[in-house]
Fold each of these.
Amino acid sequence: MSFLNGLSKGLGVVEGVLPFVNNTVMSVESLLGGAPGPTKKAAAMQIIGSGLSVAGAVTGAPAEAVAAALNAVSPLIDSVVTLKNLFGEFANPSSPAGPKTAPAAAPASAPANAKAAIAGDPGSTAAGKTSAASGQ
């Protein structure tokens, strides 16, 4: 029964850490999108390592436990990046594989229009500007 208790506790830790790892990976990707993968992973490891060091200092955890936790997070970072790549969230149009679904011909202002459309500005889409210009 101790194995199941340990497994349950471990899964609870992963469940608590995974959103932090995911948010860190997404932030690093948005900041260093064009950087090589090892550079981005090192940045994510440094951010997470800083967080673990602060948590370790607050809780009084030994340095060895903090280092072990950081070593355990490394495969989680790899897994998050692999899944994001697999589902096309990190697909780069300049990469050999290209994006998962590439538009036929996107206008030069497509990224700005997409961000505004996500923010809920109906006049920001190409169709919204066209209909506003035509008076409809």
Amino acid sequence: MSDDLPALRRLPLTARLDPMHPSYALVLSVHEAAVAADVPTYPDPLSGFEVLTAAELWARGFCCDSGCRHCPFDEGPRGPDAAVPPPCPDSD
């Protein structure tokens, strides 16, 4: 499911999860465990809600414009270094 998902796009947008948040590493760890297990969601340790993984969203092939934490299609800075990934390939 996540084989072609660029590594940088696995990280949440900094606007949706601040890398300085005290639980940032925990959220990433739980997310990566879900991706590795090939499950579509994980229980968010901050809210308790089920959150879609970047791999699941990538497999859909488009952005739903719902502001998903791990949306791989949204542009903008990601991760502790606020790196900006190259534009997504067209999903048409």
Amino acid sequence: MTQPPKPVQTPGGKPKDPDRININEEWELRFWAKELGLDEDQLKRAVQEVGVLTTELRKYKPPH
């Protein structure tokens, strides 16, 4: 049985696809949470609310 391909990370530690977030990959969840100024739980909530596109997530404001 073959393993599914691993998500690709560039040498600089950034996701290869800068337009979409894969919150199922721990390293990508940490990267995007830091990049967007959210904690990991806030980012998961944001993805549930607005989807995986980084353009939409950059506009997201977490509830207070």
Amino acid sequence: MPRPAMLRIHKEADGKGGFVLRLEGSLLSSWVPELASVLETMPAEAIVIDLSSLAYADRQGERLLRDLAARAELRGC
């Protein structure tokens, strides 16, 4: 079964002054710059990244998520 080549990024306020990014689909190397650009527009603190609907991350996607773990809370891993 092929992996979905799409990445959907949902940005939601958490009601406490922070944001939740919910990722759906596949975080492939071609989508890493898009996710990085979304993250650049967000405040450095109070970010939660919900990975519960992420089906797959390739090597570059995994690297980005590891780097993000220093500045964001990762959920659903």
